Fold this sequence. Notes:
With 298 residues, this protein is α/β, with parallel strands linked by helices. The chain folds into three domains: 5-58; 70-112; 140-287, Ribonuclease H-like superfamily/Ribonuclease H (Nucleotidyltransferase, domain 5, 2-Layer Sandwich). The protein contains twelve helices and five strands. The chain has helices at residues 5-17, 22-29, 33-46, 48-58, 70-82, 88-99, 105-112, 174-187, 207-211, 231-245, 255-271, 283-297; strands at residues 140-148, 151-158, 164-169, 193-198, 216-221. It has a five-stranded mixed beta sheet, sandwiched between helices. Helix 1 runs antiparallel to helix 4, helix 2 packs across helix 3 and helix 3 (33-46) packs across helix 4 (48-58). The longest helix is centred in the last third of the chain and has 17 residues, at 255-271. The termini are far apart. Pfam families: rve_3, Terminase_5.
Amino acid sequence: MDMSNLTLITLAWELYGQGVPKIRIAQHLGKHRETIILWMQGIERSGLSGFLEQYENAKKGEREKRQVDPILKRRVWELREREMDCCGQKIQYFLNKEYNSHISVPKIYEILKEKYTVRSKWKKNQERGPIPDAIQSREVVQMDTVDFGDLFAFTGIDIFTREADVLIAPQLTADFGYQFLLQSMRRRFDNHVHLIQTDGGPEFKDEFKKNVEKYCDRHRVARPYRKNEQSFIESFNRSFRKECLGWGKYRYYQLPYCQTMAELFLKRYHYHRPHMGIGMKPPLLKLKEDDCRISTEN
């Protein structure tokens, strides 16, 4: 049956006038029973011609968009700025946690576009090179460095739990690479992991290379120009720049300040900042919840 809705409404009213039950009319016209009920109620209020005119006018033009509470908009914008231009999923997390407000991610981005220029950071269906995978903690740790002028940040991350560590150093040398290896293994990665992956930079050779296998079963060097193999640490480095030290250059005498800022960032990163890769939980809170669940199950 290929008819316009105006014709169907007229036919439905004629059938209804003949005493045909609404459920049978709905079946005959291929419409939902509630639709037929609404049609009949509208015709009884306005008459057939009046209802048809109202129905046709209602279909013209775009419907007015539902208005969002201005207070909710302000909260979205404030969270965006407070959390260092974070994504819509994180804003949704904080709205729910701090204000018990529930709003969809698309609606959050719609609100953000009223004030900010929002661009997609990722290309869909982009081919990615192979990277070591992890199904449990301490299986794969990726390490890298970030250039801050006269200072350098040595960074590392467990790709399963997303726990991370940072050391600010005055030189990009294997001695400081080894110093970072000692620090991160002792205070963050339980002194031993299955695989440590680095790039082929000089900071991960010599002293670092001589000692790395004391703390892992295997050391893997990522292939040159394949940043996707270091995707987890590259993502962490971007967050560290954006939310901590930025893209500026620092002098030698600013090392204590930069290390203090790095420690504050790590505290926030581990206990406050939710991570999409682990179910919108901060890394150490997620780890604590998992430990409690395992203890309960046992």
